[in-house]
């Protein structure tokens, strides 16, 4: 969905390096999410933010940090990358209307840690 | 906490065959259910969703899913698959009405359609 963009799309880095993945959205949604996808494990939630002042850990937040710079921007950082963080990373947004909450995904960032 | 099970890890079908992918969830309250599709090399796209009302939900590209509350199931169906349906399919659930908006995904089912 072109409304959710991620940069970079591919990144190869070395163990110990600091990496930042960026996500921007033009959907006007308050809620943003970071997931990682590993073969056979589906998508697992890393962090999520329901508004600019709200940041929450997901099920696998260790080794990651996030920053919500604005409603439209949500960055994921790996402070010291390790090989088992090699994965496909997706950003998503959603707009909760009080009853329903549907998430829309960005194109993904393929990260390889050597 | 909710969980989602997709028991079919890899399904191989010939074109024009009928498709049914299983999805079972565990959660005691009212849930919202989703099917997402991921074509090779692409991001997840919403295929269909169920919030309330008619338990038979129709989505894009001829897909449909039926919510059976008594079985905690939300199986995805298509009467006649095409080669272009080759993709990975993910079932997901959340329960926003109960304050649990986080989406929980199943591990996915890889669908391969043989021409």
List the keywords:
heterodimer; A: 114 residues; mainly beta; 7-stranded mixed sheet; 4-stranded antiparallel sheet; B: 115 residues; 6-stranded mixed sheet; 0% helix; globular
Describe this structure in words.
The complex is a heterodimer of chains A (114) and B (115). With 114 residues, chain A is mainly beta. Helices cover 0% and strands 58% of the residues of chain A. Chain A contains no helices and 11 strands. In chain A, the strands form 2 sheets. In chain A, strands 2, 4, 5, 6, 9, 10 and 11 form a 7-stranded mixed sheet that branches. In chain A, strand 5 (42-51) and strand 6 (54-57) form a beta hairpin. Chain A is globular, with a radius of gyration of 13 Å. The termini of chain A are far apart. Chain B is mostly beta strands. Chain B contains no helices and 12 strands. Chain B has strands at residues 3-5, 10-14, 19-21, 24-26, 32-38, 44-50, 56-58, 64-68, 73-78, 87-95, 100-105, 109-114. In chain B, strands 2, 5, 6, 10, 11 and 12 form a 6-stranded mixed sheet that branches. In chain B, strands 3-9-8-7 form a 4-stranded antiparallel sheet, with no helix packed on it. Chain B is globular, with a radius of gyration of 14 Å. Chain B starts with a strand and ends with a strand. The mean pLDDT of chain B is 91. Chain A binds chain B through residues 1, 31, 33, 40-45, 48, 50, 58, 90, 94, 96, 99-108, and chain B through 9, 32, 34, 36, 42-46, 49, 51, 90, 94, 96-97, 101-103, 105-108.
């Amino acid at each position: 969905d072109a409304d959710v963009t991620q940069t970079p799309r591919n990144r190869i880095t070395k163990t110990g390096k600091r990496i930042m993945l960026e996500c921007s959205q033009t959907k006007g949604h308050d809620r943003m999410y970071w997931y990682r996808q590993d073969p056979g494990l589906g998508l697992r939630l890393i962090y999520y933010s329901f508004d600019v002042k709200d940041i929450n850990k997901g099920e696998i937040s260790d080794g990651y940090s996030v920053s919500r710079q604005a409603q439209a921007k949500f960055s994921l950082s790996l402070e010291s990358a390790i090989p088992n963080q090699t994965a496909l990373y997706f950003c998503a947004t959603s707009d909760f209307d009080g009853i329903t909450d549907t998430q829309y995904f960005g194109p993904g960032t393929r990260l390889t840690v050597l | 906490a909710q969980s989602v099970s997709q028991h079919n890890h890899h399904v191989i079908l010939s074109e024009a065959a009928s498709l049914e992918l299983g999805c079972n969830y565990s959660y005691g309250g009212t849930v919202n259910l989703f099917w997402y599709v991921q074509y090779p090399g692409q991001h997840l796209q919403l295929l269909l969703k169920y919030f309330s009302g008619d338990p038979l939900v129709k989505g894009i590209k001829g897909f449909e899913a039926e919510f059976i509350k008594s079985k905690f199931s939300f199986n995805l169906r298509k009467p006649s698959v095409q080669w272009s349906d080759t993709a990975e399919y993910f079932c997901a659930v959340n329960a926003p009405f109960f304050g649990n908006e986080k989406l929980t995904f199943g591990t996915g089912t890889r669908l391969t359609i043989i021409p």
